[in-house]
Each structure stands twice: as C-alpha cells, then as structure tokens.
Amino acid sequence: RVAHDASRQLLGHWCCSGMTSALRTDKMNSSIWQATAPAGPFPTLAGDIQTDVAIVGGGITGITLAALLTEAGRRVVVLEAFQVGDGTTGHSTGNLYATVGGRLYKLRDRWDVETARRVVQSRSETVGLIEKLAQRSAPECDFRRVPHHIYAVEPGEVAEVEREYEATREVGLSARLQSSQHVRSAGRVLVMDGQAQFHPLAFVRGVASAAASAGCQIFENTPMLEIDGKQSRVRTAKGTVTALEIVLATHTPKGLFALHAEMPVHREYAVAGRPISGVMPEGINWGLAKEGHSVRSLTRGSDQWLIVVGSEVKTGRHDGAAELAKVELEAQEFGLREIEFRWGAQNYQSPDRIPYIGRSLGSDIFVATGFAADGLTYGVLAARIIADEMLGRSNPYADLYAARRVTPVKSAARIVEENVVVMKSFVQDYITDRKTISL
Given CB 3.0 to 4.6 Å as the disulfide criterion, which of 133, 135, 401, 412 pairs with 357? Predict the structure, then answer.
C-alpha cells in the first residue's frame, strides 16, 4: 500500500508524525504555522540512553505526553525525525472542537447515543486541558475560544446540517440553528459556542521547551530506525534509547501493525494569505458540499491571514495539483488577495470511527492513531489516556479508545471497501498499466 501511494503521488511523502506532511510540488512551500512559529532547536541524539519512557514522534501527541509524564517525575526521552511539531501538527488547521469532522450523527449511528456522548465529552474536556497547558507553557500560541459554524453550501446539504444539529442535542452539546450569517450558506447555520483555535506549532514548541526545562530530553533530526521489542530499545543512526515503556506517537505506527490494513488514508490541501479588508470570518467555519471547505482567520501581532482548507480526498487516488488548484480558486472567492502559503496533510481513519489509543494488539507498545482530521484534540486526549495508564491512574475513556478493541461488525464495511479499492488500484498500477511486468 505504501508503494502504491508513492507510485501514484509523485514527489509526495507518506506522511507520519515526525515526517513532513507537505506534498513537495513546485507550487507547495510550507504551512503558515511553520512560517510564524517561534524556533526552538533541540540536539540530535548521539550515544546510548536509558530512561523510563521513550516517545517516538515530537508532534502534539508525543510532546504533550512527555510534558505530563515529566511533570509526574518520570524520565522521558522524545525522538523526532525532523523538528518538533513539523509533521502533521505543523500542517493542521489549528482548530479545536468537541464534535468530530466526520459528522457526529454518523458516529452516533455507527455506535449509539451514549458512545457519541462520551466521545464529545472526552474531546470537550481535552480542549479545556489544552487551554490550561497553553496558559501555563505556551501563551504565545494565542489560544482563544471561538464559535464553530457548520453550514450547507449547496441546497442538497441542508438536511445534513439539520441531522448534525439533532445529534449535537442528543449528546448534550450546546448548539443552535440560526439564520444564515454566511454569504455562501444555503440554509440555517449550526452554531456551537465555546470551541477554540490556537497556533498549533507555537503550542507544541512552547510545551516542549517547558518540558525540556523540567528535565525531559528531546532530540530532533533523530529518526527511529528500529524497535527491538525484546530489549525494549529504540535504535537511531547514532545511538539507542532503552526504556521501560515505548510509545509510537507517530500519527500511524511505524513497523507492521494489523491496524494498518484497516485505516483509510485521506489528504487535505490548504492555502493561506492576506485577505481583502473586511472579509475575515469569525471562528471555525465548515461548509458542507461535494467540494466542501474549512475557513478560518489568523492574527499574529498586526498581521492577519485567511486560511482555506479543501475537502478530503483519498491518498494515492487523486491529482494533487488539481486539488490544490480547487482550493486556490475557493480562497480567491473568499477574498484572498495573494496566496503566500500552500501545504497538505494526511490523516488516518479508524474503521469504526473511534481512534486507537493505548497498548497495541499483539505487543506492549503504546500507539495513538486513527484520529481522522480531528488530530489536534485527539492527540492531547491520547497523551492524557496513555499518561494515566503509565502512572497507574484510572482514565474514564481508556476503554472507549482502547487500541486492543475488536469491533468487526462496526468496522467490516469500511475495511472491505478500503481493501477492495486498494486491490483494484494494485491491479491497475502493477498489471494493467505496466505492460512489461513479469507476472
């Protein structure tokens, strides 16, 4: 599957946390977060270390977990392949919310109202934890509470907005439908107050600096080469880390795990630039349509930017340049004067719509994956759940997100669909299109 994605997406990187999420084409550069985040370089590992916990991946999951464990007195080492936060975290939207991007009513229908309620509650509490961490360790990340708007761009999506509103009310999430305040809305707007936005890369680097000051060892430009499960050791090019516990906070686990075959992979493209005066949208704005969008503003000092993100597309089965062009056109319609930043990011979706967090099936290694497009909030939630288990504390959501759970009925349709499509693409790529291949 990795080979298939690579063959279909020229110059693309299979993006995991600790690896860049940006698709390197002649039109892509870097995300707005990378361009506006404070620098905070850490050394490269050179030598052998023994510690309590080795965390592979210096994104929002790994760094938050490192901070929580270091605060509790654990010895922690973080290994990041590039720079802290430069992977998926540095290519995200910076939006934080209690609901889910894949539609709350679909999660409710797949499971039940109580499960959906617990997901929303866990995410809402996590946004509160991020707020506390931001105030304490990363005030420069500009955390702020904002409303979340969901609206139909096309008349055919009005019913979906109404179904989503019903689901929010069922699970106890404060929400309302109000008359449209959006030029592009085809009906009433679903509004959820008290959600949040921040600068994700400034947050992660601020928390990382605070954790390092408290004794956590963080190493950048130190990609993991191998995990020796028997020796509980992580090998890098210039050293090793031997630990009591190992965590793969890498967006999708490195190595071979059964869940790799279960998770669909999607990509989103984003652009940012200076807006025409007076068109800055408030809060989080999701427009539902066949070609949907997510729009938000960013203020840093006296500078203002508009950020526009396109709809999800399946990785390896789309034209990256064409998708980026769609987002650029959408941004111009929203009043973007000139596009300064272009980037893309991938996400991995669990087949039953709930992430995998905890010890993996078949090993004692901790994993955190399947966040879909909701990874900023889920990443910090994963850090909280894993930290609680390591510290011997009960977590009310550990069972809900357990990585060792098996849900064949709820997962079957999605697993079958995904792997049938992968096999179809395999046949097209390696048999039909490659006339000279030796069967």
Answer: 401
Pair of tokens at residue 353: 């719509």
Burial 351-388 (b: 16+ CB within 10 A, else e): bbbbbbbbbbeeeebbbbbbbbbbbbbbbbbbbbbbbb
Cβ-Cβ contacts under 8 Å for 54 (sequence gap 6 or more): 77, 79, 234, 241, 242, 243, 245, 246, 247
CA separation, residue 86 to residues 60, 215, 294, 303, 385 (Å):
10, 22, 21, 22, 23
Calpha distance 142→251 (Å, rounded): 24
Q: What is the DSSP string of 47-70?
A: EEEEEEEEEE--SHHHHHHHHHHH
Q: Which of 241, 251, 200, 242 is nearest to 219 (CA)?
A: 241
**Residue 150 burial (CB < 10 Å; 0-12/13-18/19+)?**
buried
Across residues 306-316, what is the average pLDDT? 87
Q: Of the candidates 121, 381, 424, 76, which has an alpha carbon nearest to the alpha carbon of residue 246?
A: 76
Model confidence band, residue 408 (pLDDT cutoffs 50, 70, 90): low
90's tokens: 């540095």
**Which conformational region is residue 350 in: left (phi greater than 0), alpha (psi within -120 to 50 degrees), or beta?**
beta
Closest by CA to 22, choosing from 11, 38, 36, 8, is: 11
338-392 confidence digits (pLDDT tens):
899 999 988 888 888 999 999 998 788 999 999 999 999 999 999 999 999 999 9
Lowest mean pLDDT: which of 159-163, 251-255, 269-273, 429-433? 429-433
Q: Whose structure tokens read 């069967």?
A: 439
Q: CA–CA separation, 308 vs 324, rounded Å?
A: 11
DSSP letters spanning 256-297: --GGGGT--EEEEEEEEEEEPTT-PPPSEEEEESTT-EEEEE
Backbone angles phi, psi at 305, to 5 degrees: -130, 155
The b-or-e profile of 86-95 (16+ CB within 10 A means b, else e) is bbbbbbbbbb
- Retrieve residue 57's tokens: 């991946």
Give the contacts of 420 (CB within 8 A, at least 6 positions apart): none
Six token digits for residue 137: 């360790």
pLDDT, residue 123, reads 98
Inter-residue contact 16 to 82 (CB < 8 Å):
no
d(CA 62, CA 224): 14
316-326, pLDDT tens digit by residue? 777 888 999 99
Going by their DSSP bridges, the two strands 366-369 and 239-248 should be labelled as parallel
The percentage of residues in the chain with a pLDDT greater than 90, rounded to a whole number, is 67
